[in-house]
């Protein structure tokens, strides 16, 4: 495909005791985005970072912070994460009763807006907002925990979304997250994804740079 493949390392797999340094190292290793998974223990069964942590690590890089909000009710917290330094804010349709209002709020704060689709969330849930989105995130695992196995059945959703994005002439990033390694990353790129989120694979071995480059060219 013609798009440049972007790599968004998930800091969920980083060493939290030196998180700022980890972010700096990812920048130096060639990452395109820094992916921040925010979980509240309510919308998903895990708890990760709040806005305070994002604000603390913001100074370590100028790369865009790709912040995935797995929290509910999401409206209450959008401004907090925007103020903390998020550049892209991605929400779930299930976390709000008014997805259009949420997307408008994100945009009004000068941020890029994304919507995430869980494995069983239909593409039709994007109908009212798809033309205004900067990013669509397809989850290839059930959100909540790192290290899960890739669900190949979501590739058909990626293919369909790629057709829609191309047919509409949109410049929307099509991102995939969950179980992404060199093999599944290749499948995702072939299906039409152009942003790969990966934690475990990028942080494994000795070289962040080699892993990021290998993932970018795995197709």
Specify the number of helices: 8
In the CATH hierarchy, the architecture is Alpha-Beta Barrel
* Low-pLDDT segments: none
Q: Cα-atom Rg, whole angstroms?
A: 16 Å
Secondary-structure-based class equals: alpha/beta
Mean pLDDT: 95
Q: What is the general shape?
A: globular
Largest sheet: 8 strands, parallel
Number of strands: 8
CATH class: Alpha Beta
CATH topology: TIM Barrel
Amount of helix: 25-40%
Instruction: Work out the count of structural domains.
Output: 1
Describe the structure.
It is a single chain. With 219 residues, the protein is α/β, with parallel strands linked by helices. The protein is built from 8 helices and 8 strands, in the order βαβαβαβαββαβαβαα. An 8-stranded parallel sheet has the order 1-8-7-6-5-4-3-2. β2, α2 and β3 form a beta-alpha-beta unit. It is globular and about 45 Å long.
């Amino acid at each position: 495909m013609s798009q440049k493949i972007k790599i968004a390392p998930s800091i969920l797999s980083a060493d939290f005791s030196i998180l700022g340094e980890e972010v700096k190292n990812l920048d130096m290793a060639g990452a395109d985005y820094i992916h921040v998974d925010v979980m509240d223990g309510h919308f998903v069964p895990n708890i990760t970072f709040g806005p305070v942590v994002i604000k603390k690590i913001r100074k370590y890089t100028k790369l865009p912070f790709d912040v995935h909000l797995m929290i509910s009710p999401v409206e209450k917290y959008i401004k907090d994460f925007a103020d903390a330094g998020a550049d892209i804010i991605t929400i779930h349709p299930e976390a709000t009763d008014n997805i259009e209002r949420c997307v408008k709020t994100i945009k009004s704060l000068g941020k890029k807006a994304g919507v995430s689709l869980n494995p069983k969330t239909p593409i039709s849930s994007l109908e009212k907002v798809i033309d205004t989105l900067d990013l669509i995130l397809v989850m290839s695992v059930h959100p909540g925990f790192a290290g899960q196995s890739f669900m190949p059945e979501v590739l058909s959703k990626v293919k369909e979304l790629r057709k829609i994005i191309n047919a509409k002439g949109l410049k929307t990033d099509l991102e995939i997250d969950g179980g992404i390694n060199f093999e599944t990353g290749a499948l995702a790129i072939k299906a039409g994804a152009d942003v790969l989120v990966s934690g475990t694979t990028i942080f494994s071995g000795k070289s962040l740079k080699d892993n990021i480059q290998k993932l970018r060219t795995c197709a």
